[in-house]
Amino acid sequence: MKIFISTLFLTILSLAFCHDHNLIIELPGKLESQKDGLDEARLKCTSWRVAGEANNLSPWKMIPKECVEYVKEYMLGRSYEMDIEMVSNEAVEFAKSFVVNEDGMDVWIFDIDETLLSNLPYYGQHGYGSEMFDHIQFDKWVLEGVAPPINPSLKLYKEVLSLGFKTFLLTGRTENKRNATINNLIEAGFDNWDRLILRGAEDHGKTAVSFKSDKRKEIVEEGFRIIGNSGDQWSDLIGSSVSMRSFKLSNPITLPFRSLDFYPDIKGLRIVQSCNGLLLCCSDLGNQRSRKYYVFNPTTKQFAIIPSVPGGRDVRKTICFMGLAYNKEDCVHYKVVCIRRAKANGVLFQIPDQDLTVAKVTSASDDVFIILLWGITRSSPYGGWFLKYQVELDELQVAYPEFKHKYLPPSHPHYYEFEVLDEVRGENEENTFMVVRIPGKIIRYNVFDKSFNQIYDLRKVFYGYIGNSEVHRYTESITYF
Predict the structure, then answer these.
(1) Quick check: is 49 in a domain?
(2) Which of 220, 228, 250, 331 has the fewest CB atoms within 10 Å, i.e. is most exposed?
């Protein structure tokens, strides 16, 4: 629950009295705010914070630089304390209104970081959320065991204990931090809890939602009733086996997710692209032939594993681009785009379990690239790979001879000196284009009518080279202003 403080603007009215004592009021042409009123930037930062607390922001890694001072003032000032007090007071009233059963099976769950203990001293030394999150430095801070208590939460904790609830502390901290966590909690005034549940080795790779849902399920299966749950992240509260009532504490500093741990890929995970709140991720190590791809929603913690392009490892090694596509006219559906090189008049791919049905590339050109689509929804995959476009780049090679390597044979994997940086769907399908890098230039190539033009000269910067890992599509959102 948030408290919004409104400022009362007073308009000074000019009064004049005539001899006949009639009152004349001169109204101002427009209402002017006081000098210390909220300016546009502050209002935007307030909107950003509220959107974040409501879980409406796309994934973000750092607080917008324009809002760093705002967040600092909020966290160090009275507003943050009042927000926490409001939530804690509501939780106390709810706890008092509940008649605790005498069987000792009524439970209140507490998160630890930014719920019972404050890591604000750490974030104060690291730009109040304006710096990239550093797991190693944060773990060192946790092991020091000096985080102060959040006083309204301490008051709630003591009240819950006095009412007879079992108190379970459920945290994303790992088992190797158990002793430091226990000592820190006791030093901060928290004691007499019934269970302290941390991540074990068996929980590696689980999302916060999955981990906490699993632990709550185990608690319920033991016969306990989860009455209340307090946490600063939605991942503390949502999922399965939820409490009778949950209480979300304010926290504009901590990231909504800190790591890509939604799937235990032994080669690690990295982000390839983001699109309207979804992340396309892939295996961090290994070549294209063995790489796996995933679509991950960091808000709901749901993910989908994208099936490999049919045709085996030899086909997959010809992939030169993987990305997400989004049609704003059909906001439910997302598609994964795959662009790969294909042999003219050769087999595109074989569709399994469909009587050996095959699709073939038919072209007189030796240089053919195909765009495949895989259709998915936010919650689960459906459909399969299908051919969307067939692209011949003959004219592009004539206009830009540097497209091909001078000293390598056509059979060489690096014969074509280009990268597909992105595939963009226009307002109409006819405006769909690829963004291609060739030595010294970035080219826009329309896959529908085969037209193209240079959109950037890389020779002015970057020494003529830039890779697809350094190029990102610009999307205007509330996060950046």
Answers:
(1) no
(2) 331
Would you tell me how many other CB atoms lie within 10 Å of the CB of residue 394?
14
User: Structure tokens of 42?
Assistant: 């502050």
Token look-up 């950046």 returns 480
Q: Kind of pairing, strands 14-17 and 23-26? A: antiparallel
Give the helix/strand (H/E) hosting 166. strand 166-174
Structural domain boundaries enclosing 216: 61-248
Q: For 138, how many CA atoms within 13 A lie in the half-sphere containing its CB?
A: 18
Which among 354, 456, 430, 443 has a CA at the least distance from the CA of 395?
443
pLDDT in tens, the chain (481 residues): 333 333 333 222 232 333 343 333 343 444 444 444 457 778 888 887 887 777 666 656 677 888 888 888 888 888 889 999 999 999 999 999 999 999 999 999 999 999 999 999 998 888 887 777 777 888 899 999 999 999 999 999 999 999 999 999 999 999 999 999 999 999 999 999 999 999 988 887 677 888 898 999 999 999 999 999 999 988 888 888 999 999 999 887 765 555 566 666 777 777 777 776 678 888 877 666 678 888 887 766 677 788 887 777 777 777 877 877 755 554 445 678 887 777 644 444 333 333 323 334 444 445 566 677 776 444 444 557 777 777 777 777 788 887 777 777 776 666 777 777 777 776 777 888 888 888 888 888 888 788 888 888 777 654 445 544 455 555 544 333 3
Which tokens in the block code for residue 185?
């909690």
* CATH number of the domain enclosing 110: 3.40.50.1000
Return the amino acid letter for 234: W
Query: SS3 of 251, please?
Result: coil
Residue (of 186, 378, 375, 350) closest to 276 by Cα position? 378
- The 10 Å Cβ neighbour count of residue 319 is 19
Is residue 85 in a domain?
Answer: yes
User: Looking at the chain, how many residues does it have?
Assistant: 481
Number of H helices, E strands in the chain: 10, 21
For residue 1, the tally of other CB atoms under 10 A from its CB is 11
DSSP helix/strand/coil, 360: strand
Helix (H, G, I), strand (E, B) or coil at 293: strand
CA distance 63 to 52: 10
Angle of helix 78-97 versus helix 68-76 axis, rounded to 10: 50
